[in-house]
Design brief:
globular, alpha/beta, 7-stranded mixed sheet, about 400 residues, about 20% strand
Length: about 400
């Protein structure tokens, strides 16, 4: 039977019908350990009782009213975010892609209102991923993202990731902002060293340009801090957030300082669904739990356990793996085989992982994965690697 769904995904032949914490249940009854979390979305796993309660309570009262009116749930979540971050202002979206669109508009409008309308260029980095909208693909700039979709939105300057000299050379009088992921996700779990992020902040301050962080994948507790940039002890001017903030409900946000957000006045931006009562009720339940310092301590403890076991896994299978990299529970296995092949072997071992660039298999488990589940997950990864080794041996 031919699917009526647009064929833009190469889907695995799996049909999950239920989720329980870190587990996904296939329609045939098989139980998979989910180390993908819907690509870092299910921060608290599947069907977390706090999120189910928040959603069902709100669903029984009010779903949607539009941003023509004040929305108490939106105010509550915005306050929770500003209380736990650098930000003074929050705008809610439905996705990270929409957050990127606003972040770009906000940075350019800031300079327009400052009387410098020529400051429109935004510096981005190779290997980046900022969504699939016109601004997002233009920001990434790779052939894979932009081929066939021209003309591409102008005003983005691309420099090699990690090349300090190229970055400083790219700054001109028309530079409005720098846009970077503290940890690249799609680009292959590449953390930007703390000293480099500090250096970016210093240069932005020195040159008078805005620092925009994309924490769509690495934010909301994923690295063991509520937001990844906190490890470097710096703060951005604008930040994109999504994925984990809704715990599975479509939700995103742009956080900004009062100054950086000053150009976004009435009528300059909007969203029909963004900040609806349902999404914000769930998002508030997520932040209430994930922002708790005790919860984040637990994330770091679990991350340490998982990384240690992955290092042993790599040592046990030198024909399959090269190493482990990442931060917190945003980890990548560098493979000597095609990452998609290892992901497929994982399906056979009933464990879910996610491929990425640079021969990386991403491990993005729920932040509340248990120690026992970590042990079982690594055992299943071991079985997948063993199967791949056996399949490559001549008969």
């Amino acid at each position: 039977m031919t699917s009526s769904v647009l064929q833009t995904y190469n889907r695995a032949p799996l049909h999950f019908v239920k989720g329980e914490g870190t587990w996904l249940i296939e329609e045939d009854g098989r139980r998979f350990l989910d180390l993908g979390s819907g690509i870092a979305v299910n921060a608290l796993g599947h069907a977390h009782p706090d999120l189910v309660a928040a959603l069902t309570q709100q669903a029984s009262q009010l779903w949607h009213v539009s941003n023509l009116y004040e929305i108490p749930q939106q105010e509550a979540l915005a306050t929770a975010l500003t209380d736990n971050s650098f930000a003074d202002r929050v705008f809610f979206t439905n996705s990270g892609t929409e957050a990127c669109e606003l972040a770009v508009k906000m940075a350019r409008k800031y300079w327009y209102d400052k009387g410098q309308p020529d400051k429109v260029d935004i510096i981005t980095f190779s290997g980046s991923f900022h969504g699939r909208s016109s601004a997002g693909i233009a920001a990434a700039g790779s052939e894979k993202m932009v081929k066939g979709f021209g003309p591409i939105l102008e005003g983005f300057v691309h420099v090699p990731w990690g090349d300090h000299d190229a970055f400083t050379a790219a700054i001109t009088d028309t530079t409005a902002a720098v846009l970077i992921e503290p940890v690249q996700g799609e680009g292959g779990i590449r953390p930007l060293p703390d000293q480099c992020l500090k250096g970016l902040r210093d240069i932005c301050d020195e040159k008078g340009i805005l620092l925009v962080l994309d924490e769509v994948q690495c934010g909301v507790g994923r690295t063991g801090k509520l937001f990844a940039h906190e490890w470097a002890g710096i703060a951005p001017d604008i930040m994109m957030v999504a994925k984990g903030i809704g715990g599975g409900f479509p939700l995103g946000a742009v956080l900004a300082t009062e100054d950086a957000a000053s150009g976004m006045t009435v009528g300059t931006h909007g969203s029909t669904y963004g900040g609806n009562p349902l999404g914000c009720a769930v998002g508030k339940a997520v932040i209430d739990r994930v922002a708790d310092p005790a919860f984040l301590d637990g994330v770091n403890a679990r991350a340490g356990r998982l990384r240690q076991k992955l290092e042993s896994l790599v040592a046990s299978h030198p024909d399959i793996f090269e190493g482990v990299r990442g931060a917190g529970l945003m980890l990548g296995l560098k493979t000597k085989v095609a990452p998609t092949d290892f992901v497929q072997a994982g399906y056979a071992a009933e464990v879910i992982t996610v491929p990425a660039a640079d021969n990386i298999v991403r491990l993005l488990p729920p932040l509340n994965i248990t120690d026992a589940e970590i042990d079982e997950a690594v055992a299943r990864l071991d079985r997948a690697a063993t199967q791949m080794t056996a399949a490559s041996q001549p008969e």
